[in-house]
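Fold this complex.
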Amino acid sequence: MRALWLLLPILVLLATEAGAIDARDPFDDPDKQARYERLIREVRCLVCQNESIADSNAPLAADLRREIRSQMRDGVSDDEILDFLITRYGDFVVYRPPLGPHTILLWAAPLLLLAIGGFAFVRVIRARAGGTLDDELPPDSRPEDGVLGDTQDAKGSGQQ
Amino acid sequence: MVPELGQFALILALMLATVQAVTGLWGAHVNRGRLMALTAPAVAGQFVFAAVAFAALTWAFLAHDFSVAYVAGHSNSELPAFYRVGAVWGGHEGSLLLWILVLALWSIGVARFSRQMPERFTARVLGVLGIVSIGFLTFTLFTSNPFDRLIPAPLDGQDLNPILQDPALMFHPPLLYIGYVGFSVAFAFAVAAMLEGRLDSAWARWTRPWTTAAWIFLTLGISLGSWWAYYELGWGGWWFWDPVENASLLPWLAGTALIHSLAVTEKRGLFKSWTLLLAITAFSLSLLGTFLVRSGVLVSVHAFATDPSRGLFILAFLGIVVGAALALYAWRAPAMVSDAGFKPLSRESFLLANNVLLVVATGLILLGTLYPLFLDALNLGKISVGPPYFDMAFLIPMLPLSFLIGIGMHAAWKRASGQTLWRKLRWAALAALVVGVPLPLVVYGPAPMLTVVGCIAALWVMLASLVDLRPGRAVPLTRGHLGQAFAHFGVGVFILGATVVSTYDVETDRALAPGDSVEIAGYEFRYTDTYGVQGPNFDAVETEVEVWRDGRLIDTIYPQKRVYRVQTQPITQTAIQHRWNRDLLVSMGDPLGDQSWSMRIQYKPLIGLIWLGTVFMAFGGLIAMTDRRYRMARREATAPLASDGRARAGGQA
Amino acid sequence: MWRFLVPAGILVALIAFFFVGLFRDPSYVPSPLINRPAPEFQLPQLQAPSAVLGSADLRRGEPVLLNVWATWCVGCREEHAKLVSIAEQGLIPIYGLNWKDDRDAALHWLERLGDPYVATAVDADGRVAIDWGVYGAPETFLLDGDGTVRYKHIGPLDTQTWEREFMPRIRALRDGRT
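Structure:
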């Protein structure tokens, strides 16, 4: 109990702040608690904006966490909770943009870019397969860099 | 007077940067030796004046000169001297000054260590660096002058943002900037090669160490930033996909691709135009990062104070410099051809796959980061793209890449033999499978498929990297090879840490009164006491938490809740108990009255491997950079650029 | 060799987007409630806790404003005089939503600075504010006579915003009605 009087001014300041750490009202069911923690990480805090409501100290974030907890207790599903938030705050509030005509490009991009990359890869491989292999590698290459990857293989390779 | 001296030094630096750009580029264009001879002295002079300006600002911080607006905004008479030095780059204006100093440092490095390159080429490289210097010096002097006075001077400063008052923050920005700015050297080499109209193995060999050096610093800078966010922000996360983090990851990904494509260009004279494009891209993404952070076009947790005129300036600069480089590229690249080839199974094709996947990852992170901006600019609404998207989009190219690393690093150039590869790697592959599947399940418990795949990938990369390090080799490894093994081993270590911690971390928020205890992951946390403490410029509540395991006290840790006296927002100071195989974190939340507090308690298995892995990567880069052949190239001095664009003849070892 | 121009093309497109982006506020979040019926609520009134103010009271057959405010909010203090002057000129009825505030402080505030509100509802726990998608006080909603949300302004209301954004809309709503 050292110097507790020092705390007073700080406690006054701290008390005005609702923290991101919400210990007041946890779920008894660990699965449900885990579901809750996952869910609040997907909701963006609109006040501080680049934090999820799980990490935000803003009072609004605390309100939203409480709202989500109470809806979960009422048996509302995750999707319904997210829809609830989207109808009030817009798509901005969720970190996983809902699939729609405006976001289709975003969601298709991983496969689209991979396909373009794969196409380019195959084209270069095809084009280069017929190229010359006669050039010598720089002198400082290591032994394994030999044409067939291993010194003994390189001996019988007939290249060069 | 000292701040005016600093400002004057900046103006002189700008004039010398102009001399550097003109004598370098014009001198090389007209091939006038006497002009080009002025370039290197101009670089040296520019460095001296940039250093004087930087010292002047540091002096203003140390001497508490609050009549300087920037000092008044970022310091305070109570701020410890250590942080006053760090505060020099703790805000927009000062960090630009650091950027300028770092650029001058790189330029002088190029001038000093490039004696083996032809005079014209060096002059062009330095000329391009001069243009970049002009851009940043003008930007600083006209939109963001750190030496602006504040009349009348305030009695005291507004203090440095408390979350920046941390030792890691002293080093994070300098490392990051050395990395960012280092890519301007690769960029300058690329532009100089395009101005010359040719590019060969010698070019690639000159460019490689510089690129690797920049990459090392960027790797360490990002890693340190992530570590800082982990323990300082107190949320227990280590990567948040914030636009600012993405802005640093983008040039890193492009730079990593560049390092690998440079290898092909050096060994085979292939992928020349592609390598040029990557060099331009890595630098452009560094500039883009600067733009995103300082213009306010995206919402971010740690954006600088923003101002549209600054954004406009950087955008114009980006457009002119990168636009000119890309125009030059469109003109010169079609001529950069090579008739060299390789078979579908060869080192070249693996490096090509590496480049494709890294560029896909770069593209996806860029798209995700900018997508909200695109939609908004088209009036299609406001959305957020966050971790759920990036986690998925990043994994799609990176997971296959991690499996390819193991094979690629052992494949022979030109044509590899599947049989040889199999003989070399079968034990590593088998061990990765045999250990990788049970490892997570037995040590840590049930896990989704992806975790098991991640562990296999991690072990595979680590073991495959070690294959060549077996003792009793006939031929000693070159440093290049050793560095490669180290860096790739680090990738494996990183994957293992990231996989395990993202699957098995445990977190709980509890209300605790003195005497209460909580048990998670086999550790018992006992809250014993709370008391006040005073720091140099903050007051804090500190709690004493004992950590017990199996009835034994293993440590006592002290999380704090701080209130800095000037910027009164409360800051949570998380207490971390480190061990090689896990971290335990305790952070204080709200006071619940009567000395009881809400607390967040976290268990993070193997999280240290994430940063250890990046240190391995950087260390591997350092070893590779010191390879004999770069020094050899230096001695070979002024041999003319080989005109056929391929390696000179030479005996194979 | 057009493909070597692709990177330059991408750069031009990016710069165009960034240029537009510079003149927008990335943190402004438009309300999805625009052109939707105002959310239902029933809350006690500030001055008379036993009396209820509800969404039905806002459907007056003429446009009304709903202003979200709190005594802890700096922007609210800034705009208060403007609200008082609008009320004094009788330009439009204004209702208040006192958001997560201390009742005594709120009463004292109105006493000291003037009360521009026809009535003020007390949303002590912020539950109703969630339904309205409130994220940063002050916020001001414009509702038409049927209680449909027509416009939302985030941040302090100043004369410029009032003349440029609110008055034309209010006139249009009144004209449409007659």
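Chain C has a mean pLDDT of 91.
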